[in-house]
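Support reply, case 0932

Customer input (verbatim):
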Amino acid sequence: MSQNSDRPHPAGPAPSASAASASESSATASSGPGSSTPGAVPDLPGGLTSNDPASPIRYTAEDAAAAADVLRRGEEGEAELLVSLTDEQIAALDGYERRQFTATPWLEEQGEHRRLAAAVGLRALIAAGRVSALADPGGGEPRWRADPEIAGCLVLRRTATLFLTAERTVQTPQGPEVQRLHYCVHDDGVLEEEVTALGIHRFTPLRLEQAIARLVVLIDPSGVAAGEGQPQRVRSSELATSAIGQQLAATRALTVLTVVRTADGSVQQASSYATADAVLTMEALDPGSEDPQLEFRAVGPADLRALATVLVSGGGAG
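Our regenerated output:
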């Protein structure tokens, strides 16, 4: 399976693992350099965790409680959006110099202005009352903390046992349109992070079955998965001129699915192609080959749900 450039690197223990003994909160940080001027926005390259983006994130019992509360909100009823943040707000909270494993399409266009963009994002959060300064009883620099909803999401997106990224590309008259869903899977639920083309991150707590259902809709937006077919195999070099290649030319939605297991760092990928009347999955049978053999299979609704279940539950891809 191929490596994903957005592969997550968990920055600390899961909320349930020794959170109470951690000495530094994932949602708090002392003001960075240049923030001693009254009213100045702090410079936090490591986000609300520390001033050093290379240091590991450590969580407190308060952080663990916030994360658990976020997941509890998804235990009953319909899925509901919890909070939306922009790329620049994510950069401010999580650190503009800390490596991100989710897409940040707007921020990537800012180049050398990432630090300024993060400062603007932090100002907006402070103005909205979502981030506040905590006075240091000893008279030192104030510490900054996000509200529990945001703090919980920050913990969950960094401590999942499994990360699933689904990137769907749809061809439109205006050009390719990309939708990205990131699923942070925990024992007690799933946090969905949808990233729009404008760099808006929408966080929704889900039950496992809800995540599976939403993934099925993403892969097959028109509900055309109709039935099983015999597998078709073709070498990558021959795909363009093959019969299956001609069928794929009519693809309306291409979805690339990437699974990362944080226990061992393993990465797996699968792809699906939704045409006007079918959904096909693709697996490279010998991914290490220079000219891998590709297997395509038309799937029905039951197969598609089974695939989504395996991906979200961590059983594998393909």
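We compared this against your earlier run and they match. Two observations from our side: The first strand starts at residue 28 and ends at 30. The CA atoms of residues 216 and 305 lie 6 Å apart. Please reopen the case if you see a mismatch on your end.
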